[in-house]
Amino acid sequence: MMLCQETPIYIGKAKNLRNRLKQYFQSKPSSYRIQVMLSQVDDLQVIVTDNEANALILENKLIKEHQPKYNIMLKDDKSYPYLVFSKHDFPRLMMIRSKKLSQKGKYYGPYVNQKHAILLLEQMQKVFLTRNCSDHFYRNRMRPCMQYEINRCRAPCVGYVSKADYQKDIYDAKQFLEGRGKQQSIILDKMNAFSKDELFEQAAFCRDLLQSIGSSVKHAFNSFDIFYREVLGSQVIIVLISVNDDQIQNVHIDTLDTQKRCYDDSWLEQYVYHYYSQFPLPKRIILPEKNQQLEAALGVKIQGLNEKKYEKWTVIAQENLQIYFKNQSNKSFHWPEFWKSLELYLSLSIENVLCVDVSHHQGSSAYASCVSCLSSGMDKSNYRTYKVKPGGDDCAAIFEVVSKIQKDRLSEKTLLIIDGGKGQIGAAKKALDERGIKVILVSVSKGKERIWGDEKFYKFDQVAAEFHWPDDLLKYILHIRDEAHDFAITMHRRALRKLSLSSVFDQILGIGDEKKKRLLAYFGGLDALKCAKLEEIEKVPGIGPSLAKRIYDTLHIAS
Fold first, then answer.
1. What is the pLDDT of residues 325-346, one digit of tens each?
2. Cβ density class 295-332: b for 16+ within 10 Å, e for less
3. Topology (CATH) of 339-494
4. CATH of 507-558 given 2.60.120.330, 3.30.230.10, 1.10.150.20, 1.20.1250.20
5. Is the pTM of this model over 0.85?
6. Dist CA 186 CA 360 (whole Å)
7. How many CB atoms sit inside 10 A of residue 273's CB?
8. Which of 532, 522, 539 is nearest to 553 (CA)?
9. Cβ atoms 132, 92 nearer than 8 A
């Protein structure tokens, strides 16, 4: 689907194109995102392939090339870590996240697991004693650094090791990473040499590195990868388990955010094909269901996770997912559990939660916040603040803010929380009706005493009616409300400080924006300026004795 002849906004494939297009154009779209996408379509372009496997390959290639706005964006190799030896007489071993043109050298990877890549880097630096300093640091050394003192480097910067000896270690390190069947012999030789010299700590490093061999290279006859998926709100969580000879080698969990994007049942095969365009293929792949076109495209056997012999791997994937959820949550909040309970309570699949609050000081410096929450927790990248008209009318402010929230953030699967009572929730409902948007609309009222935990809650169906959240959800709802409150107050206080600062300087004749900036930069803030002596203010560039005296007098009269 094209915005114009040169700009694809969505790329997909279909065995029966007529039926696929009917889903979009002859029936009501299932989500607001699809409605928005269809409203922007100016043209359709069709490419015919000879089979489904080639269609999958072409789809993946075009998505990579054009990065369409409404396709799920998959990680490319630029976001995975690499180990690289710099191009230098005494190469540095380091980890980077993309093949930068400015960084010349020998690359190894990408590595799907960042923690594994970091551990491997640390172990190799301990065993092969490669330098890890920058070229600038290396060029300017007069004596060995701490890395040499703790036996982590051979100090090539000051000539403690010859180029030939250092290059021998680099050659062994490269052979190890390439995994050409000599990995164990290389490390064993190193370990024996260290033991002979009674360097037992280095010998232990070699032992640790030996134990990690095989986790990054799939060479076993019975190697297979398992892909398990779970959809939670607007997020898709994928668990990838790599197995060699019935032993787990690696577990990687990836999350895809489907907000503002369109996806169908073919997204997983696209994800898997994209993944193996960057990483080596195992002997077979286990997916939730068999997929013949992906099998043909990749050239390896694909089996279904629903087969009885893979039952234990489903359980293992679910256990790893629960551990991931617990690690993602802090000690007090377990967001995936909250999300499931919320959907169960509302009997609806929820994509996102938004909360709106307003903060002002006697009607001035009025700001509103809109914070966002997803199934993984508070989504701080999507926090927004809005400047609203002064006056102190909270209902009018709520109406104004809800009218400003981006339309693609609101849908029938959005829980919108308003900080306020019946008046505020009524104002929000009016703004939503004027925009033709339906959401699940609730509010939180602090009550007369304004005591935390003693709030009243309203839900708007036909009218605003009081209700109460279940105890297991209440803590999370109040936390989201508090986040909105804190975010609004932060912006409000910043505006007040700016207003206070402006009012102080406006009283002083001869102070413009430029001199104001110089004063604040010189002293580091208004508080330090208020404490400054007259002689210190005179030293500021561009501030003469007479102006300094006026500044000093004004600040001390104000305080």
1. 766 655 557 888 889 899 999 9
2. bebbeeebbebeeeebeebbebbeebbeebbeebbeee
3. Nucleotidyltransferase; domain 5 (3.30.420)
4. 1.10.150.20
5. no
6. 68
7. 21
8. 532
9. yes
